[in-house]
Specification:
This protein is α+β, with helices and mostly antiparallel strands. The protein has one domain: Gcn5-related N-acetyltransferase (GNAT) (Aminopeptidase, 3-Layer(aba) Sandwich). The chain has a seven-stranded mixed sheet, sandwiched between helices. It is globular. Bound molecules: coenzyme A. The site of coenzyme A (COA) has 21 residues, from β4, α3 and α4.
Amino acid sequence: MSDNNIFENKILDSDTTKDTLNEILKIQKRCGLSKWTIKDYKNEFNRIDSRQVIVTVHKTIVGFAVMRLIIPYQTNGTSNLFFEEAEIFNIAVDPKLQNRGVGKTLLEKLVAVSLSSGVKTIWLEVRESNYKATNFYKKNNFYYIYTRQNYYQSPSENAWIMKRNLE
Ligand SMILES: CC(C)(COP(=O)(O)OP(=O)(O)OC[C@H]1O[C@@H](n2cnc3c(N)ncnc32)[C@H](O)[C@@H]1OP(=O)(O)O)[C@@H](O)C(=O)NCCC(=O)NCCS
């Protein structure tokens, strides 16, 4: 599993099948993430400023990430839309396959997608007590910016706001 080449990566879109969405929901549940519904994911995937990546092993999804591009701009002479920043909404790896580089692969894919859209900064928020995630982000070049007090509910908890510069 140390060889990232065995992973197949692809970007989801509005044609995403129900099976794919169900697999994503299963990972979300196993990871105890906030509860997005199938409708939430479909609405998100239909947005032009939404980007998603998955990692599959033998055609089974083992990790996914959802990111929103923000602050659109156009450069002179082109009709292409670019974005200043991006925000990671969700990233999760099936607990059975954590600590094998899948999370890093997801982040690398998000960075590649961000760069191709002109993004200069990626932001995220994470529960203060989620040491595994905060360490994972730090090791992947995100750094702590500030704490948003009592940002999360059930249970109530502070959020760490972290960012990674791409320039
Ligand atoms: C945070 C999360 C996405 C990280 O995913 P992951 O696949 O475990 O991440 P990685 O494998 O890339 O990195 C994690 C660890 O594995 C290690 N690792 C990576 N590849 C490895 C390999 N081939 N062999 C052994 N260890 C490896 C990394 O060095 C890192 O360990 P370290 O922190 O001791 O250095 C995952 O823990 C998760 O889904 N958590 C639950 C959901 C969650 O909290 N999401 C974040 C919400 S903001």
